[in-house]
Amino acid sequence: MEKELVAYIAKALVDNPDSVEVNLIEGEKSTILELRVDPNDVGKVIGKHGRIAKAIRTILGAAATKTGKRVILEILD
Q1: Subunit composition (predicted)?
Q2: For 46-76, how does the pLDDT look when each residue is reduced to its tens digit (9 = 90+)?
Q3: How far, CA to CA in Å, does 47 sit from each of 1, 42, 61?
Q4: Residue-wise pLDDT tens digits, 14-40
Q5: Fewer C-beta neighbours within 10 Å, C or N terminus of the chain?
Q6: How many domains is the chain built from?
Q7: DSSP assigned state of 68
Q8: Which of 75, 69, 60 lies closest to 23 in space, CA to CA?
Q9: Taking a C-beta distance cutoff of 8 angstroms, is the pair 16, 27 a contact?
Q10: What CATH number has the domain bearing residue 7?
Q11: At what angle do helices 51-63 and 2-13 cross, to 10 degrees?
């Protein structure tokens, strides 16, 4: 569920939604989501002073409370 949520949010923010990729890495206590976007769109996903990235992480944390796992979002460039 978290993977689709991140992909949906990222596609709404960027100019090239076709280049959005989200990889899911499952661990015992945590889940890592790797978000990869077009190099020209990285700034749009991070936002000024990281505000958009922080907001996405906050939404992910709220969505992950059902699973009881910690969700980590990594934005790759």
Answers
A1: Forms a complex with KhpB.
A2: 999 999 999 999 999 998 888 788 999 999 9
A3: 24, 8, 19
A4: 999 999 999 999 988 889 999 999 999
A5: N
A6: 1
A7: T
A8: 75
A9: no
A10: 3.30.300.20
A11: 150
| 38-44 contacts, C-beta under 8 A, 24 or more apart | 38/14, 39/77, 40/15, 40/16, 41/13, 41/14, 41/15, 41/16, 42/75, 42/77, 44/13, 44/14, 44/15
**Structural domain boundaries, residue 14:** 2-76
Q: What are phi and psi of 67, to 5 degrees?
A: -80, -20
Token pair recorded at residue 4: 């689709």
Which tokens is 34 given? 């790797």
Q: Are 51 and 66 in contact (CB under 8 A)?
A: no
Structural contact between residues 62 and 54, judged by C-beta atoms closer than 8 angstroms: no
Half-sphere exposure of 10 (CA within 13 A, CB side): 31
